[in-house]
Amino acid sequence: MNIEDIKNIVSECDIEDNKICVKSRIYDVIKCLKNEYSFKILKSITAIDLGDEIELLYKLFSVEDEEEALLSIKVKAEAESVVDLFDSARADENEIYDMFGIQFIGNEDLKRLYMPENWEGFPLRKDYIQDDTRLAWNDDCNNA
Amino acid sequence: MNYLYHMYMEFLSKYQLPELFGNITFYIIPFCIIAIALLVVVLALVLAERKLLGWLTQRKGPNRVGFWGILQTLADAFKLLIKENITPSKSDKFLFNLAPILVFVPVMTVLGIIPYSSEFTFVNTSTNVILYLILVAFPILSIFLGGWASNNKYSLIGAVRGIAQVLSYEVPITFVVLSVVVLANSMNLTGITLAQYSRFGLLGWYFIPCVLGFVIMFICMLAELNRCPFDLPEAESELICGYNTEYSGMRFALFYLSEYALLFVNSVFISIMFLGGYLSPFGAYLSHLLLGDTYLASVLVYFEQAFWLILKASIIIFVIIWIRATLPRLASFDLLKFSWAYLLPLSIFNLFIMVIYKYLTGGALCGLS
Amino acid sequence: MTTATTLKLNLGPQHPSTHGVLRLILELDGEKILSCEPDIGYLHRGMEKMAEGLTYIQYLPTVDRIDYLAGCFYSELLCRTVEQALGAELSEKVKIIRVTLLELNRIASHLLWVGAFLMDLGALSPFFYAMREREMILRYFEKLTGQRMMYNYFVFGGVRKDIDYLEDIEEIINVLTKKIDDYEKIITDNPIFTARTIGKGILEPELAFNNSITGVNLRASGINYDLRKTDRLYEGFEFEPVILYEKDSWARYKARILELRESLKIVEQGISRLKAVGKLDQKLINPLTIKLPEGEYYSEIEAPRGLASIYIMSKGEDKPYRLKWRTGSYYAVNLLRRLLVGEYLNDAIAIAGSLDIILPEVDK
Amino acid sequence: MGFFVTSIDWVLNNARANSLWPLTFATSCCGIEMMHTVASDNDIARFGSEVFRGSPRQADLLICAGTITHKMAPVLLRLYEQMAEPKYVIAMGACTCGGGMFCDNSYSVIKGIDKIIPVDIYLPQCPPKPEALIDAVRKLQQNIIKNESILKRKDFVNSHTSELMEKGELLVEAKL
Fold it and tell me: How many helices, marked H, and strands, marked E, lie in chain D?
């Protein structure tokens, strides 16, 4: 894998540890990695709540070279979807939408996945308050 | 039957009871006997199935209710009787309630035309083979009715599967039955039984010349009974419970009951067709052999005949349960293909062979009868 | 009046063959599936959020519940990550014990799958036979660890106590070697079984890559990717990754049966090596003072249902800042969307069963 | 009158107790132990309970095997309502008894299914061994034989629900 190729796509790109951090255009970078370096598997997308922004980690894997690539991008509330490139991203992005509330532009069927449809809040965010007062039976208690 | 009728009338006239009374009760009493016998048979069958499945899968099976668990199915029956009957609010209520009764009536009726022994057939018409074929195919209509009226998608899919399955497997059965009719020169179940009589016992039975027909008939019977590997209409792992998903309590019990009663009836029918019905496998009856030509022997022989019939049916049932413990389920597409592409041509071929055989030998192996 | 020609069927969450609480919303034309939409989350227990509020040792026992059929793998993942972060080295015996138990656990998991898959296909007995053998393994685990399914046996830096009752494992190996032959006799060449599995649910490698499918399902599609080959824990053990090229449900079945045999081999090697090494000497990490240095940690393992991995971000505290699990089944469920389209309903059940989906792994 | 009621009760209670058909309802870990209870070594068939029904209409016993989450709760309630009377519930596993190990730290687990449906037998442990499940079924059987009567059945059912209503803890399906 050649870092120069990625730098051609996005100029703002640097390497921390073994992680390639990009500032934007993650879709193009992943497309390039998939098509030109045979990174055919997207192992997972991990989201981390850093407080004011959310970091997305894309872990790509190439079976032929047994090589891994770790991409990182920091987003606020919206991110580019890679559903076109990887089917598995549909599941990952949906999970992140459910847990962190990030909108993926280009992914049509984002919905509550783990939580019920009318659940409020995004549980894995750091500002999520874990209180039961919003739940049905506690409502009854409070009213009575 | 005439013989029994006269005996009964003589018995009544001794106590100066009117003849009309006798004429009415003579047909009611056997019906009650059948109804009770049917219940006992079904309870025993369910228990046998659970015990056998337990045995085949290295378990003990029910053994806590009564001695050796023999009252287990009785407890189940009582429980189903007193369980709440739910009619789903969106179902077609009239048809929903009608279906379990409709499924049960033909099964009860068909028990009347079976010759249990040479003197014990309630309805003995000259063409009762056809009557049998019609009555046995009838429950599937009620199954469809129940599945449709439940307004449940699983029930509907189960019911449609059931219709498709029975329709395709009825046809080979008819051809096989036709070949037996050709062999026996009779459309009467007693006639077919008697035509299989020979001095050498089981060598005269029709499963020897018509082994292909026997196998086809057995396979089709499994399909008609919705038994494994053809249990698609009530495939547990696909359709929850198939057509009876919405039924509870007593109505479910009726479906359950008729299912096992049909299992019994079908096994009896196949024994009559191919395994010589109530004939003894040794040629002569045991009671005649042991007791000679006495009055006791002439009474006992009726019971012995019934015993042989039940024994043959039990063996068939055992094989069916054994198959259930062994085989996976067929795919729905393969199921239909299997019938139309293999069984139907084979059964026609079988009929053809049997006609030639009949023409050449006159019906039995040379000089046996 | 509506003229709808398709049927929407809601399969689950309470359904005998969804192996838990998976819900599939199917659109049917007759019995042919036009589209499939999995709905998950009925068992979402918030494992990842829980980690943020618990110290590592408090979190360790809950990890087994992520995959109740093969809990060892997830404890191993967590232990391994913490050990690597703190630079702890495992002794030789600990490594062998871990490999032996992991493989024993994999056998238990695959056995259940064999039974449940055949149950989906409508066969009754293989389920009982497989459960009978699985019971032996669970009894052994109970003897060793005190629990049948949630062992909590691996701890940071080693194992909770020395392994024992090796003769029990030897008996398990002896019995299973014969019994697997028996399974093959009643299942593998059964004409109904082959008719229902051969050529059904073909998983092309491209589709598998695209859907991030790993583990046995991928290897049954002809891709040689077995993490155990590069895993440092498995150093010194000889085994062959099972690769089959048929790509269908039957291959996935056969691959698991062959993998059972491979795992038995590994367990056998483990026992002979355990007998050779002496007493257990291990240097446990004091669980009360565990603080991972600031940074990100990642490790992965070949679990029975594909690649399992853990990601921990630590801010130097005694609790992880963020912990993420990656499980194999989660992506297999997503694959159903593609794989079931165009199949008949009862084939669909068989195909979904052949992927070995287990719901706590999906929902976490 | 009393004599007849008691003898009818005796027959019916014994029939009910010995033919508890469970619903196939397994959400997680405990479900596997439930499968082991059916399998060869433990064989719940001895007590007549191996007839697992997929349809709630035909089942008598809801063995709630595994964690119930907020998303699952309405489903559980509906299943319970679909079952025909008489129906019994065994809360299997620590999660269903009171949240278990997910009690304090999880946002999505319901802390005890008795907030949703009435429970007859509580069976803690995580997960309970098959022997424990058999024991629970036996206890339920004894309970049915001893304490039930056709005269009291209605009150028995009502008391369960009204008690929960009073506490305001009964989860209403529409609300979640």
Answer: 6, 3
Whether B82 and D16 lie within 8 Å, measured CB to CB: yes
Write out the residue range of the structural domain in which residue B236 sits: 83-361
3-state secondary structure of C319: coil
Domain count along chain A: 1
Q: Pick from C296, C204, C320, C194: which is nearest to C253 by CA?
A: C194
pLDDT digits (tens, 9 = 90+) for B232-264: 777 666 677 777 888 888 888 888 888 888 888
- pLDDT of A4 reads 65
List pLDDT tens digits, range B19-76: 777 777 777 777 787 778 878 888 888 888 888 888 888 888 888 887 888 888 888 8
Interface residue ranges in chain A relative to chain D, Cβ cutoff 8 Å = 114-116, 118-119, 123, 128, 130, 135-137, 139-141, 144
Q: Which residue in the set D71, D108, D171 is minimally distant from A136, CB to CB? A: D171
Nearest to A116 among D70, D115, D171 (CB): D70
Query: C22 touching A, CB under 8 A?
Result: no
Whole-angstrom Cα distance, residue C288 to residue C56? 9
| B14 assigned to some structural domain | yes
For residue B369, is it within any domain? Answer: no
Please give the residue range of the domain that contains residue A128.
Answer: 3-143
Chain D's closest residue to A122, CA to CA, is: D107
Note whether D125 contacts C: Cβ–Cβ < 8 A: no
Q: Which residue has the tokens 């359904």?
A: C15
Instruction: With beta carbons under 8 A apart, name residues in chain A contacting D108.
Output: 114-115, 123
C47-363 falls under which CATH superfamily? Cytochrome-c3 Hydrogenase, chain B (1.10.645.10)
pTM of the prediction?
0.87
Measure Cα distances from B29 to A117, B8, B25, B107, C159 in Å. Answer: 64, 11, 6, 18, 76
**CATH classification at residue D102:** 3.40.50.12280
A137 vs D169: CB contact, 8 Å cut-off?
Answer: yes
Q: How many domains, in total, are found in chain D?
A: 1
Interface pTM, i.e. ipTM: 0.85
Domain ranges of chain C: 47-363
| DSSP code for B329 | P
